[in-house]
Every structure is written in C-alpha cells, then in structure tokens.
C-alpha cells in the first residue's frame, strides 16, 4: 500500500510538469499548438557491479553482464512562448514507456517495466547538431518480490515497484524536416528508498540510439527579449511523512542466519529561505527537524522471536541545517540540499553519518501550495528513505537599493 501511495504522489508531481504548457496549448488554435513527436530508442550496456548479488553471489553463481532496454516516447516541443522555453534552449518534454531485459537473470529479479516523464535540455546547439542532457523520472514495475534474506542470498530488490531514474547525454542530428537521430550514453537507477527491504538497488550504464519523428515538421523557435528578472525572496515550510524498513540478522540455534525487517515511521519538518537571483536559479539556506524511528533502531528477542526494542522518543529526534540550490523551470523546481546534523544522539557501535543529502522535485500550485518528492541519501551514494512533501510558501521582493 505504501508503495502504491508513493507511486501516486510521484506521478502527480511528474504530470504537473506539463501543466503550464498544456494550459497554453488549450488557449491556442489547432495550427498554433506545440509540435509533437514520437520516438523509439534501444539501449545496451553492462549492469554496474555495486554489490555481491550482481557480482555472482546469486542462485546462478554468475555475475550479471549485459542489460538491454527499449522505450517508446511521446514528446512535446517547446517553441519559446514562455520565457523558460528560450532560457533552456527550447527543450522537449514528455512521457515514455520503458522495458528492460537482464540477459542472464534467469527470472531471479524480473525484467522491469516503467512509466516515466522526461525532459530533454539542449546544452549546446551548433548549426547542424546539438548536445543534449535528458532526465527521466518515474515508476518501475514487474520486479520479482523477495524476502530480506532468501535461500542464503541477499537480493537487491524486494518490492514489485521501484523508483526509475534515467539520465543521458545525447548528440542530436536533424534528418530533414521530420526526423531526429540521437545517440549517446545513459545511466539508469532502480531503487525503492528502503520502503521495503531488500533495497540494494540496481544500476546500469550503456549506450543508446534513438530515432524521433516530429509531426507537422519541426517547430520554428520564437526569439524575444527576456525581461530582466526582479529578484525575489521566498520562505517555504514543508511537512514530509516517510517510511522505511530496517533489516536485522540473527544466528539461530542450528547456526543458520535468520533475517527480519521492521517498519519505522519518519516525520520531518523543514523550512527554507531562498533568494531567486534569476529566471533559472535560487539559492538559500534551511533547517529541518525530524522524528526518525529508524535511526539507531534495535531489536530484542522475546520467547525466541525478534521484536522492536523500546526507545525514548527524544533519542529519535535529529536536527539538521543545509544550503539549498534550485533549478527553476516555470513552476517546477529541481532541488539539491546537502545537509549536516547539528543535533542527534550518538548511537553506540554505529557509524552513523554526520551528513545527509536531499535531491528531488517540487511543483508550485497557484501561488502558495507546494507538492514534491525527494530522495534522502547518505554518503552521496545510498538512498536512506523517500520524502513526499506538502507545504506552503510566501514570496516577496525587496531591494536595498530602493532607498
């Protein structure tokens, strides 16, 4: 149930990325609507050897090798009607369906399918080609369910659904009025943010090639003078409920290893002051206070059965501070917040990190309501849990030169 709720929130945010464009499209005549396209890509590359299971400690005693993927994409081409179209080089955004194939999995993990939204941002345009960065974010399904420890193996994915993240650098070459050919390198990540264990994650890198067909020819770009941005201040308050599992290993009487996972709730409140210095960039500073029942979690044996150990609520309180960076695309923002804990209880025998990282997206509905989803990570590499946010913001302008 929790995974389905996360899926609903993520899809809501991702679909919202196109609200501005769709609203503009609805107000125009049929001839003035944004150009649409359909694309198909094929990808090929290795599974990244990040943990023992994919290195060969699995029922097949074989390291994971080649991974293939295909995707069908529906794109909407911006043309400059809104300022952010021109500021970001007239990007293409849209949605896609994805299918991956492990070549030597033998049905251990399953072959993930995904529904996602993407944005393709040109980094540099030349006369006959461009270099683009594409980011896709969505939900993957069709994983085989596994327990925390199964048949003496630690599987990397235990849930039916996960987050799908795909990043690519592509060279794009126009082929006449209707086609684009794209080729580049891609990185794909699957993880469920420890909502359900196991969650070691699966990563792939590789090359891909895509052919894109544009209906009614490629768009003509609108070039206009962008007005100077009037710098603004912003205050945001967010409430973020979360959930994660923590796994424990036990040695039983016959010497076998028993693994169990327990659910723990997390609730965070964060507040951030931002200064938007341009149409594209916000900088700020913030603080958060969290109740994290998973922090320093322990268990105890009761009549031979593991149960959660009792704890004091104050021991689960963590306070952090962070700088904040946002990349603004209309009402959508991509955020990065590297944090540092200024208060937390030391956990004996644990090497708990003193820093954390938050990356995610948020969408501003009307002027004040904010919805978003973040991945909270540690050590810049491991997803700790997923935050889904609801909040309120206030914006105002002030220049000390006014006087």
Explain this structure to me?
- This protein is mainly β and about 400 residues long.
- The protein is built from 4 helices and 18 strands.
- The strands form 3 sheets. The protein has an 8-stranded antiparallel β-barrel with strand order 1-2-3-4-5-6-7-8. Strands 9-10-11-14-15-16-17-18 form an 8-stranded antiparallel β-barrel.
- The longest helix is centred in the N-terminal third of the chain and has 15 residues, at about 1-15.
- The protein is flat.
CATH fold annotation of the largest domain: Porin
Shape: flat
**Main sheet specs:** 8 strands, antiparallel, barrel
Query: Strand percentage, roughly?
Result: over 45%
What is the SS-derived class?
Answer: mainly beta
List the helices and strands and how they pair.
Elements: H1 2-16, H2 19-26, E1 35-46, H3 52-55, E2 66-77, H4 83-87, E3 92-102, E4 113-125, E5 130-141, E6 162-175, E7 179-191, E8 202-214, E9 232-251, E10 257-276, E11 281-292, E12 299-302, E13 305-308, E14 317-329, E15 332-343, E16 355-365, E17 369-378, E18 382-396
Antiparallel strand pairs: 1-2, 1-8, 2-3, 3-4, 4-5, 5-6, 6-7, 7-8, 9-10, 9-18, 10-11, 11-14, 12-13, 14-15, 15-16, 16-17, 17-18
